[in-house]
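User: Hi! I'm working on a homework problem where we have to compare a predicted structure to a textbook description. Could you give me the structure for the chain below?
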Amino acid sequence: MPNDLVHLNVGGHRFSTSKRTLLSSLQTEETFFTSLLSGRIASNVDETGAYFIDRDPTLFKQILNYLRTQQLHLLIEDNPNPKQLSALIHEAKFYGISPLVKQLSLCQNVDKSSCGNILFCGKLDPPALVKPVKLIKAHYSTIVVAYDTYFACYQHKGVTGYQHVFTSSELGADDVIEDIAINVKMGLNIEGQAVQKIVAVAHGSKVTIIGYSMGKEVPCGTFTLPTNVTHVFFVGYDLIALSLNYVGVWRAQQWQSQRVSTITSYDVIGSFLFIGAHNGSIYYIGTNLEHF
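Assistant: Happy to help. Predicted structure tokens:
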């Protein structure tokens, strides 16, 4: 509609836009433009009737692009000049565009880090002899670190950071860990002992499940699939093991497995596991296993 058009003269450069654009700044509080268009602030007009704003037109062009698209990537180059960012922040503050100020400030601060701050928070020493770390998995505030034939667990403890809390016994010289998973919310009772933290280790065609409580190892069993296990992970309280063409599920300390067509992909959505197969089928497992 013609009456929706707004003509601006910013530093001698003419801009035309809509009221909707000027008022859509991703926020509810008042901006320069809401005050200008409502008459709450005094305004000057040029000889054509355009609102005159005595600001930098080059910077205003970028501000207007943001209001039009609500996309920050249109504003600045891949490696913005710090002075350009500072100037844009200053202009965004003048116009009262708070969301833009916040986003530009993040861009300004992203490279301002020092050793021990963003890039490096600390270092965890190995629990025994120095061996290469093979895998790291995490659940809540606990991480499990797999080496070739054993694993260690570290837990975050407030201001003291991550602390070593458990190291497993060796699985065996030939039992090289291929994958590992951890769940710290299991709430199991194993031989009269309450166990919250469970670690599952895939080695060869076996899955060894080990709990730990107060630094003490609690064996939960070892299970086998007909072919080598390639992935282990938890979906809620269910432990899933995948091999070339088998799916194993450990639930409530019971183990089930089923042959499927050759597995080509998988993903987890909420409490469901979806498995893509070579034959074009999609298998899926729900929390109650009724869809298995």
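For your comparison, note the following. The radius of gyration is 30 Å. The mean pLDDT is 86. Good luck with the assignment!
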